[in-house]
Specification:
- By secondary structure, this protein is mainly α.
- It is built from 7 helices and no strands.
């Protein structure tokens, strides 16, 4: 797999945080899948999620330290620092317009982390698992144009 495949996978993250191997195979038609490259793609998404969740925890803790009282007061605007950091990471050269629902997913994730930390759940060992379950249900279908054999060339 090439750096362009990695870039495409990062862009897909705006729609899916937890893609199945079937979804991955559908959107990477130029790859002859085997155990190794399937594992590589799955690992990439795991790394994308790790970065995403680290940012969420950081910004949720920051909001608490700034005295925010309720999760509903947390809003993620298109020009917010958190949104900018995520867009820079997954869409460095602004190859695509970020789907509108991604801002909603980010806001929901941030609120879930805020509530968990505020409620002291972060003292438990696997406190993030319940958050992961909520966020996995927010995946959206990836646009059809990602299946195009020319998709990677469009990014160059």
């Amino acid at each position: 797999m090439t750096p362009m495949h990695l870039r495409k996978a990062k862009l897909m993250f705006f729609w899916v945080r937890y893609p199945s191997s079937a979804v991955l195979k559908m959107y990477f038609p130029d790859i002859k899948f085997n155990k190794n490259n399937t594992a590589q793609l799955v690992k990439w998404f795991s790394n994308f999620r790790e970065f995403y969740y680290i940012q969420m925890e950081k910004y949720a803790r920051q909001a608490i330290s700034e005295g925010l009282k309720t999760a509903d007061d947390l809003h993620v605007a298109g020009d917010s620092e958190l949104y900018r950091v995520l867009n820079l990471h997954y869409n460095r050269n602004n190859h695509i317009e970020v789907p509108p629902n991604f801002r909603y997913v980010v806001e929901q994730t941030l609120r879930e982390f805020f509530r968990a930390i505020q409620g002291g759940k972060d003292a438990e060992q696997s406190w993030k698992k319940s958050i992961y379950k909520v966020i996995s249900r927010l995946d959206d279908p990836v646009p059809e144009y990602f299946k195009s054999p020319n998709f990677l060339e469009q990014l160059e």
